Structures are given as C-alpha cells and as structure tokens.
C-alpha cells in the first residue's frame, strides 16, 4: 500500500491523483487530504500512523513550508515532495536531497496566465482604470480624475527576470510599441535578443525603465532586491508590477515611493504576507492588488493537477519526473 498526502487546497484536485495513480501503480494507493498551511500541520498530518509507516508522497500548496524538520519527521518512506506551484522558495530542497527525497514543481502550467495578468496590472495602473471606476461610482464623469496618464508606446518597460513567464510577457508587450529591457544573470543576451529584448544590468534596468515588471522567484539573492535605491531610479510616472514573489520588493521602500510620489502606482499580485494583515499597500488609490490569483484559469488548474500527479506517479514507479528540481541549480 502506498500513501499520498494532499494539501486540502482549492488548487489541488484529489480526483486527478486518484485517476493517475490508480492507472500507474501496480499496488493500491491510499490518498489522504488534510488541511495544512504550516510546517507543524504538515508534520502532524504526515506522522502518527499506527503501523509506523508514513507517506510515500506529499503534495503541498504555496502556503505550506517544507522544512528540513518536516522532511526528517515525515520518515524514510517519503520519496517525493511536490510543490503544486512554479516556485519552491519555502521548500528545503537541499535537505530533501540529503534524505533521498525528490522535489518537483510545475514550472510552466500558468505561463500564459501570469504573463497576461502582469500586463493587466500594468495597464490598469497606467490607464488609471480603478481611479476612473471609483470616480464614476461616486457620480463623477470626467477624464481628469485619471490624470496624469502617459502613452505606453515609446516608453521603456523593464523585466526583472527572464524566465518563461517574462518571455511570454515580452511577446505580449511586443505589439505596444515599447522598448523592452531585462535583467537576469542566468540568461544570456542572445536569448533576449531573439525576442527583441535588450539585456541590461540591474541598476540600468531601473535607470532606463519607465515601468518595471517583476517576475523573479524568491531566493537569497532576490529577497528585497527591489529596494529604496532601485525605486529611486524610476520616475514619477512609473508603474511597478509584481507577479513574482512579494518579498522580492522591499515593501517599506515601495510604500515610501508611493507616498512621496516618486512613482505613480503599483500593481501587485503578491505580497510579503499572504493573506495580508494591516498591509499599508492594500486599499491605496495608487495600488491595484489581486489575491495571488495571476496563475488562475480553469485550464491552468487542470494542467497543474495533471502535471503534479504525473510527477508523483513517475517517482513512485522509479522514473525521473518532468518537474524535478535540481538541488544544485544556480537559481535556488
């Protein structure tokens, strides 16, 4: 009997795992769904069986950190931890590797969705969409409520990171008549040139950009990288968009830049704390905040579950999963 633990998340569809694993495994599989949300709950849900055995696979949402302590507590049976998401920023990949546990993720299930959402946030901020909507709801009917607005054509848009999502966003932005520049130390200039994007250094990204869209994962090197100095290099008409991870931007510095008028607006799908508690970035007239929903479409959700279930099946049948995370990857 093999055991699989699934986080009780609206993102995760237990039926997808039951179907895939029942077809792939030669032995019965028991699937348990538990509300996780913390390392402590993960350990509690993943241990304590009367027969002393544990789970062979664990599938977690973005809200459940998988620490070295959790990997150790889940026991020797554990073969794979699946992060039902693009990033693995709160999974201890090194500890898992040391324990012989494979970590997988689903890196491209929502590429189109997040790219489109980033463009939606940029346009909403640039065109003062929410300000106009609020003004009309209050009984006003004047273009002046959205001032000042500048054209996107002829502007420069900076992309922080140039992975699959940023590359798709660059394709979408190509028709707007803007110049595109990008900073990513792991992508060479030729790959950017192929997509009409100029590779620049980090400081040059902010010096040259009218607007910046953040796609970077959260790592030791990206945490807080968009700080007060970076934001000070932008202009009063600039928009900052973040669909990467909240802590990539220094939240205090972003609030200050908005308060002082150093930048025009921010479009955020991710925050430092999710869900937010008394976050000063929420509820502002100059911010558009969505609830970490950039990934979502019904198509993306279905693809996420198909891919994650396939990775579980691959590991439990001795194959290499498509979403395997290399513990020695330079981006971790």
TrEMBL record:
The keyword NAD applies. Gene3D superfamilies: NAD(P)-binding Rossmann-like Domain. One of its GO terms (molecular function) is oxidoreductase activity, acting on the CH-OH group of donors, NAD or NADP as acceptor. Residues 119-294 form the D-isomer specific 2-hydroxyacid dehydrogenase NAD-binding domain. InterPro entries: D-iso_2-hydroxyacid_DH_PdxB (IPR050418), D-isomer_2_OHA_DH_cat_dom (IPR006139), D-isomer_DH_NAD-bd (IPR006140), NAD(P)-bd_dom_sf (IPR036291). Residues 30-325 form the D-isomer specific 2-hydroxyacid dehydrogenase catalytic domain. Keywords: NAD, Oxidoreductase. Belongs to the D-isomer specific 2-hydroxyacid dehydrogenase family. PANTHER family: D-ISOMER SPECIFIC 2-HYDROXYACID DEHYDROGENASE CATALYTIC DOMAIN-CONTAINING PROTEIN-RELATED, D-ISOMER SPECIFIC 2-HYDROXYACID DEHYDROGENASE FAMILY PROTEIN (AFU_ORTHOLOGUE AFUA_1G13630). This is D-3-phosphoglycerate dehydrogenase.
